[in-house]
Amino acid sequence: xxxxxxxxxxxxxxxxxxxxxxxxxxxxxxxxxxxxxxxxxxxxxxxxxxxxxxxxxxxxxxxxxxxxxxxxxxxxxxxxxxxxxxxxxxxxxxxxxxxxxxxxxxxxxxxxxxxxxxxxxxxxxxxxxxxxxxxxxxxxxxxxxxxxxxx
Amino acid sequence: xxxxxxxxxxxxxxxxxxxxxxxxxxxxxxxxxxxxxxxxxxxxxxxxxxxxxxxxxxxxxxxxxxxxxxxxxxxxxxxxxxxxxxxxxxxxxxxxxxxxxxxxxxxxxxxxxxxxxxxxxxxxxxxxxxxxxxxxxxxxxxxxxxxxxxxxxxxxxxxxxxxxxxxxxxxxxxxxxxxxxxxxxxxxxxxxxxxxxxxxxxxxxxxxxxxxxxxxxxxxxxxxxxxxxxxxxxxxxxxxxxxxxxxxxxxxxxxxxxxxxxxxxxxxxxxxxxxxxxxxxxxxxxxxxxxxxxxxxxxxxxxxxxxxxxxxxxxxxxxxxxxxxxxxxxxxxxxxxxxxxxxxxxxxxxxxxxxxxxxxxxxxxxxxxxxxxxxxxxxxxxxxxxxxxxxxxx
Lengths: 151, 394
Prior knowledge:
The complex is a heterodimer. By secondary structure, chain A is α+β, with helices and mostly antiparallel strands. Chain A has helices spanning about 5-10, 60-75, 80, 85-95, 100-120; strands spanning about 25-30, 35-45, 50-60.
């Protein structure tokens, strides 16, 4: 399993890391027990164009690189165009991903869709991306620590 | 590059390479040929067998079967013996292994289960050891074979194989141990431990890859897995890898000569890593930290960071280590070893295994720790959930 140079570039120098404080939409997807979780915040102008996007990701090299490139790809796009971004588009843009890592690009595109819907719903409009499962806000990694009694 | 993955493989020691060199082009004969170059190869092969037999306390050199490595030895131990002592045509039987075995054992067990054997995995405890009372609890009257590794490759813990073998024998079962990670690193005497079979690999002890061995106690019924020209006393066909056997024997001799001093040095380096990393970084633990362990393996859990990201960033700085995160293996689950001792998945994703060996220095270890700390801090700062789950306020 070898990463392309472009994946390594986005992993080593991730673009747009952080959180937009006065964001118009936020999406958080993934599952800490699977090892990948991504949060994306977007700023949208009055013509429904994405002005800015920032991300935070816990995950492998591919999860970080796909998050990074998605924030680059959607800046300047309309929200309608942005949610059309597929996992294959993301992988292609990165010069390909190992097959075992394709799910990481789903994380990034799903995060974006949740953020766009969050923006639309906050404006009292209909969501356009359908059902995407958000990260469980109540997940507690310290819960039931004594469940497995291995003496 | 600073190589800190000696549990994955080791470089061939120059002294081993020197011993091997004459058998590539000079004494290149087939060890089964009667003329001189064949006899030269034969004598070298048998001298290697004798040296390894002595090194592991075997009663006879003929109890050593040369193989292509640990995985072949593991496969052979199960399939060759079960075919003979408990064939499926006679009803098969029950076989047991620990849940944190190498895939060379686990996947054979799984396959045998599909063929019709009944299989049980016995879990190690959270301390990293398989305890004899837990083995005792799963033994049955029809248990034919038990396989429990001597030292675990991710934790470094050394099981009390003597007690485990006694338990298996008291129920009439044979006992095999995968000794790939312990050979040359801790006392390993097949007669003292009472094992019927043991698997070895040369490349973990500064010998060549593609070379291994199976200890097969005299009297254990055995049906060759690899069939052909009948080499290795009809126990493993194929022209013998003389150069590999010579290298394996030399590698083991060197490890045994230097063992006590080297293990003390590596144990001190391991304790230094475990202590400095856990003191310098919050939310980090040694995966296991007590009991009998081989010297060179430092297993760490770095909470709130994904292992592959750490591995890649360390690689950028020239440090080679391994991780038990799912993403490094291509599977969805993190290391089965860590899960088997009760480490939760979200914690196991942040595991690092630093393994040291013959050429590791104190400077290497300090350089590694200095490199690791800012990497972990940077990745935690990039995580959307670190503060929520592991931050000081929570």
